[in-house]
Specification:
The chain has 115 residues and is an alpha+beta fold. The chain has six helices and three strands. 38% of the residues lie in helices and 12% in strands. It has a three-stranded antiparallel sheet with strand order 1-3-2. The longest helix has 14 residues. The termini are far apart.
Length: 115
């Protein structure tokens, strides 16, 4: 298939034929660091990828993450993603001015030894 042409989603992939999606590679799924992530952390990571819409840096608030998992689970998932090298915090908001935290996807999970 040439670039620019997008295959429509199959009916078992969702209810919209033109829906947003994320890239999740086999090498990532086979990586021991990825396999050791908690299920809720993987869920948060996938939603972050969806929200980022292909960008490396993105804003993601605790309020947004708490729509996916509980606030405490979200906080723990962020810590795990940072510790294991999947994301980095670019900007930390203390909540003043209602500005969300800014994150960037990282490839440190590839280079780090298995956690």
């Amino acid at each position: 298939m040439s670039r620019g042409l997008k295959a429509p989603f199959k009916d078992y992939e969702g209810i919209k034929s033109k829906d947003k999606h994320i890239r999740l590679t086999k090498s990532m799924m086979d990586n021991e660091n990825f396999k050791k992530l908690k299920p809720a952390t993987v869920k948060v990571y996938m939603y972050m990828k969806l929200w980022a819409n292909g960008e490396k840096e993105f804003d993601y608030s605790k309020t947004l993450g708490s729509k996916v998992v509980s606030p405490m689970t979200f906080t723990n998932a962020i810590k795990e993603l940072i510790e294991k090298g999947f994301i980095e915090r670019v900007y930390f908001s203390n909540g003043g001015g209602h500005k969300p935290n800014r994150y960037a996807f990282s490839n440190k999970w590839i280079k780090n030894p298995t956690f």
